[in-house]
Structures are given as C-alpha cells and as structure tokens.
Amino acid sequence: MAFIPGPDRLARTRSSLRAFLRWYVELHPRFFRAFVWRCVEGFPGFVRERLPRFLRASGRRFVEWLPALAISLVCIEIVLQAGVRLGVANVDLPSYSIAYAKPFWQDINPHFGVWHPAHARYRHQRACFDLVYASNAHGMRDREVELTSPSPRVVVVGDSFAEGWGAAYGRRFSEHLHQRTGIEHLNFGTSGDFGSTQSYLLYKTFAAQFDHRAVIFTILPENDFLDDTPTPWRLAKGARHRPYLVGTYPDYELQYPAGKWSGDKRWGWHFKNLLREFWLTFRILDHGVQMVQRIIAFETKKHTFDPMRSYYFDYTPEEFDRLRYAIEQIKVLAGERPMLIVTIPFQTDFPRTAASADPPPLRRDLAALAARLGITYVDLLEHMNEERAKYFLGCDPHWSESGHELVANVIARWSFYRR
Predict the structure, then answer these.
(1) What number of helices (H) and strands (E) belong to the chain?
(2) Which of 52, 191, 239, 301 is most buried, judging by how many CB atoms fall within 10 Å of its CB?
(3) pLDDT tens per residue, range 278-305
(4) In angstroms, rounded to a whole number, what is the distance separating the alpha carbons of residues 106 and 123?
C-alpha cells in the first residue's frame, strides 16, 4: 500500500523547500537574486496563461505541417530506394520486417566483441544481391558442427570477406575448398569491423576448442590497421566492446573500453537497428556518419586524405607490430598445425601497386615474417590483377561468386592439401 503524506507534512516540506531556495539564492549577487525572484513570481502566470496558448499554437502548426512532412519523408524514401537499387549508393536496403530487426552482428562476446547470436537469421539486401544469412548453435555462419571430429578440419578466421558478405552459403571460398579437397572448413569469419587482434582472440578463446588440423587467417589491410588502432575515444566508456593492444611490441597490454561489459544489453543499439530495418533515410545517414569517421581517422593518421591510399603501402611500424603480434600468437596457439595467412586487396590497392615501381612493402614484410615462423603466405593482390572487376560485386566492394571461386583456386594450391 502506498504511503500518502498528510497535509501537515506536505506544508512542512513546502516550507523547508522555500527556505532552502531562499538561502541558496541569497548566496549569489544581487542582480542574480532579482532575476531569480522575478522568474519565480512570473512562473504561475506563465503556466496559467502563456504556456497553454503556446502549446495550442504549436499543436496547430504541427497538425498543419504534418501532412507535408509525411509526404516529404515518403518522397525522400522513394528516391533513396531508387538510388540504392540503381547502384548509385552502396548501402544495405531495409528489410521492412520485424523478423530481421534484431542485429545479426552484436558485441556479445566478452573476449573479442562482435559475433552472431545463435540460431539467428538476417535478410541482407543490396542492389546486386538479396540473401538470408543464418547462424548455427555456436553463432557461426555455417552448418551445425561439433567440437570434436575424427576427420581433418580447417579453421578459417577473418572479417567480412571470410564470412562471405554478399555471398550465399555454399558459394563462399570455404565451401568451395570443402568440395574440392574433401576437408571440412569451419568458417569463423564475421563482419562488424573485425580486426586482427579480434581474430587472434577469437581463435584463442573459441575456434581453438574445435578439432582441426590447420588454420587459415585472412587479413584485409584496408580495414585491419585502422580497426586495431587504440584511440582515446575507442577506449572511452560507452564505446563498442572490442579489444585493443596498448603499448609497444611485444609488451602489449590488452585493453577494452572503460566500463563494465554488459553482454550487449545496450538497448539503444537495438533501437537503432530497428530504425535501420524500417527507414532507409536513417540507414543512409548512419552510413554517411561512419564514412566521415573513417575519413577523419585516416586524416588523423596521414594529415591529408589521399584517394590513392593503400594500406599495402601506408601503414606505420606500430600498426604492423600489432598485426605481427596477432599472427605470432595464433601460430603459438596452433602449435604444429600448418597455418596460412592470406592478404586481401581492396579496390584502391590495385592502381597504387600498378603506379609503384617496387612491390608493396606489406608483401615483403609479411613474407619475411611467414618465413621466420614457418607458415605459408599468399597475397591475393598477385592473383586478381587480370579481369579483377568480375571478382567483386557490382554494388559492393566484397567478392562476387567468381571472386570466391578464384580465392578457393589459389588457396587449394597450399601444400597442406597435398599431404
């Protein structure tokens, strides 16, 4: 039963509040005291007379403008739909379905951050594809798999290219390799700005628990160097939950954003995804904000935005040290298992390489690291120069079906498969 104070207690409370307010105001200069008392004296009149008139006038204006606002929003949505479907803007289309409103990529893992919820489904639409992704009981975008297996298996770790962004299940390079070699490939790839530090921790805390005979680690220089760079705003409270290597090689300290990890109980993100699934205008604005953030991050690093940038060339020693550390740690965990690292070129990497008289420094540095660690290194930049347009989607920078087939052909030459 609720407690309701009597009239005497309410009177004493009001009197105490007035006394406190009078004491607090008297602490300030005379002009401030006069201003406060004038506001207090005029407040009842404002509430009785001016506020209702203001609300009524605002309500009438809002009702008058509401049809025009609704028509404008609908027209903007139609124009943006046409632009995306014609390929003018490379943005995901909303599903307009509550079934796909729950995010498929969530910061739900305490160790490496972004991952898929178990048994989740998500419709992914762009101008050149319309697919439904599904995750298994482990959250992998793969068929159901067990921890143990008497047959040889290969673990595949990486970002959206490894996961198969824009590719149907069965058409990704991991499935092509399974079909050609007879060896099952466990795909642990995930989108969501997934860097090399996260790949290392995913292998350490998750993928290594599955029986396997070899490891494939895919690296996207275009994203991985920036994704792995610790900055104050990335480590601040409220930032996305993901790990960063802070310090100098090899004495790194693993750090996460300040604040307690909540297992993705941040309902603001779910509300944002709900808007993205029903409102293309909001999705495009959000995409624009992300693009601006990436440009700012690059300008902070290079002091100028270069359209010919390529992280096969434009990386710092500190950035390479973090990548090297992740590769070394995966190799330590893999033990005697064969390991293959694969670098993935972005569209800006091709003209920059063609304009350079020397091979990309990243290829040289990774080849030397692979030789020292006794692992195999493949650079897909060397294999995609001819007719490279057909290896990428027309509406997205990720691989097409032809691209996944080519990658499978290149990786299938790995000596591990001939044993």
Answers:
(1) 13, 11
(2) 191
(3) 888 888 887 777 777 666 666 665 544 5
(4) 15
